[in-house]
Amino acid sequence: MNPLISVQDFTNQAAESFNIVYCAPPSHSQSSFIPGSYIYHISENTEEFIKDARSIEFDEEERTIICYDDGDFSYACKAYWGFRATGVDEVRILIGGLKACQEIGLELDEGEPPEITRSNHPYLPFNNSIVITKEEFAKKSVYCQQILRANSLPFNLLDARGNMILQAQLMKNLETNGITFSTGKSTIVHGKAACLLGLLLTFLGEKSVSVVIDDTEGILASSKGKAKKRELSFHMVPDGGEIPDSGATRSPRKSGEEKHYKLPVDDKNETKKPEPGRSNTICCNACSLF
Asked: Where is the composition biased (Basic and acidic residues) (predicted)?
């Protein structure tokens, strides 16, 4: 399923078809919202975030969940991965969020939407192969997945009209900026913009994407100087602001011809084998570390 939906496609369907969720930082107070929305305050604490994700309830659970924020994807992306990890397949992010709704003149309700409903006790399963904590990320000495590190994007994701750029253009931009990944291969994304890059890979059709929900800077610090890390840099949309810290589908992609996209790095373009006996090795010789 395409993880994104345009405002036009959203408004062409009955609001009753969706569970609409406005995603906001903790203690955020909202003055306007899409009618029928619930507000979901996204905790910055990983333990609390997972607990909240496992506790959320909807009266109509079969409806597609629409996540939106003020327009930069940051909080909506994190909520998206939380829903995916609890087994929700029908979840999409509204392109451009509240800002796009205001620009096209969509009628909004004033005030703050009601808080999203949570059960007293977490009851939903949480798939930690989709959303990974930094502790789980650090446990493995070897990874068979390709590893991508994302901190920010050097190009806009929206065009001049506020629409998501086409997949072909996104692929071209990734290639132009040297972003390397093998299509059809399981991928783990970590870093400050992991949730966003994971979403983009899913948008491009990748079927096995996982994200590390925590900042992994401390985990990698011990290996700096021994092997230079590959790193992406992401700005979001027209103002070029950085993405705040902030999502994977579970089924493997059918085998097929792989395409490779290259990312310039400081070290030589080679994959280093893990050192024997080293418990915090990040990748094996089949992996690429960004």
From this structure: 254-276
Q: State which residues form the domain around 266.
A: 128-290
> pLDDT by residue (tens digit) across 18-76?
999 999 999 888 899 999 999 999 999 999 999 999 999 999 989 999 999 999 899 99
Residues 169 and 32 in one domain: no
The strands making up 64-68's β-sheet, listed across from edge to edge, are 4-5, 91-94, 64-68, 18-24, 37-41
What is the per-residue pLDDT across 123-151, written as a single tens digit (0 to 9) for each? 999 999 999 999 999 887 667 889 988 88
Phi, then psi, of 215 in degrees rounded to 5: -70, 130
**Do residues 40 and 148 both lie within one domain?**
no
Q: Do 133 and 106 share a domain, yes or no?
A: no
Whether residue 103 is found in the same domain as residue 145: no
pTM over 0.85? The answer is no
Do 284 and 140 fall into the same domain?
Answer: yes
